[in-house]
Amino acid sequence: MVCIAAFIILCLASVVVAFLSIFRRDIGKKYWKIFKKSWGCVGKKVTFQKCDTNFKDDVKNTILRKVVIKKPKLVKPLSVTIEVVSVLIVLVTIWSLAEGAKAGLALWTLGTCNVEHPSSCALGAEVCSIDGNDDDNAFVRWLKDWGEIFSAVPDKFRSWDVAQFDFVGISASGKTDESLPQAVDILDPGCVVCLQSFRAQLEDDFFAKYNTKIVPYPIPDGDGGYKFANSKLIVSYILALDQYGYPAGSESRGESPAMSIFRNVFMAQDESIESRPLYQSAFNDNYDADRAERKLQEWLSNDGYSAEEIAEISARAHSEQIDQLIAKNQEIVESIHVKGIPTLIYDNRKHNGAYKAK
User: Which residue segments constitute the domains of the chain, with CATH numbers given?
Assistant: First the structure.
């Protein structure tokens, strides 16, 4: 292990030596000679051959040279210490390489280098993460991470046809143009990145270019609840309203009432609060469940729904049927290895993170 540990240290030192060699070539020559000797020893070790060099002894002798003269009794315990430290260096290096490989594969397959907490990865797409369960011990989580990574590898080579997925959602434009390609847009009303993505799509006329099904998806928090306060309530009203349709006696219009809820949450400001926050912030930070529901019902009233119609829509929103639809979307999201919201599927590809206006 000593020669392998020394080789690892020499590899790390090579960057500094390369720089110093610009000014002192003799340093580079001396280093290269030692490096070749260590590589020869390591090459023998990894191929299970007997190391025919004395590199291990050279390393130990170099470290212990002064100790032999001054305190010979310490030579043996220090020699054992060198062996132990060498083993630790090798194990840490192996673990680091494994972690680096896992992070790289996760970034390639799942769009994040941190499988359990996707938003913690600075290299991945900006998302509101769907976090994993922290109840498992570290080793079990590590194995599960590898399982998720390998199960997601086929996703990189498949064609993402929107028609394959039976998501429950609403039409972004309120009409279907068969000449346009299809798209799926998974959004959480409480997610700030979803707000940014939605605005970028409006800016780029995305909903006019694609027959887009918006899937309202409250991100679960892993403890039986949801990541953002009132997200599940908003999603329930959106799905219930989409089922109910337009107010009695009114003609269908371009944008559905369900889509107008998304627009209000993401685009409008709450004038009743002094700081005039966006409704998304108000729902997340200022409203309890009762106040949030009153606001949703106020929007329905402004959209022309009668008190009786609002009561029926509210009953649907709190029904088991709507809960089942939300659960169905959650199952599909998990099956396609979505680790963060928003996620879009269009042009036969899955796109992680916020849409960027072109």
Answer: 2-102 (no CATH), 160-352 (3.40.30.10)
Burial degree of 295 (CB within 10 A; 0-12, 13-18, 19+): buried
Q: Which whole-number Å values give the CA distances from 286 to 266, 274, 278, in the listed order?
A: 15, 12, 11
With a cut of 70, which residues of the chain have pLDDT below it? 1-76, 78-87, 89-90, 93, 134-136, 251-254
Q: β-pairing, 182-187 with 343-346?
A: antiparallel
241: which residues sit within 8 A by CB, 6+ positions away? 256, 257, 258, 261, 300, 313, 317
DSSP, collapsed to helix, strand or coil, labels residue 129 as: strand
- The DSSP annotation for 55-110 comes to HHHHHHHHHHHHHHHH-GGGHHHHHHHHHHHHHHHHHHHHHHHHHHHHHHHHHHHH
pLDDT tens per residue, range 90-122? 677 678 778 888 888 988 888 888 888 887 787
Task: Give me 272's structure tokens.
Answer: 């009743």
Residue with structure tokens 């959106």? 238
pLDDT digits (tens, 9 = 90+) for 34-89: 555 655 565 555 555 565 555 555 555 555 556 556 666 665 676 666 666 666 76
**Residue 203: CB atoms within 10 Å:** 11
118: exposed, middle or buried (C-beta count within 10 Å: 0-12, 13-18, 19+)? Answer: buried
345 - beta bridge partners?
A: 184, 350
Any idea how long the chain is? 358
Q: Which of 151, 121, 148 is nearest to 136 (CA)?
A: 148
Question: Are 274 and 261 a contacting pair, CB within 8 Å?
Answer: no
Please, what is the angle between helix 289-302 and helix 231-244, to 10°?
30
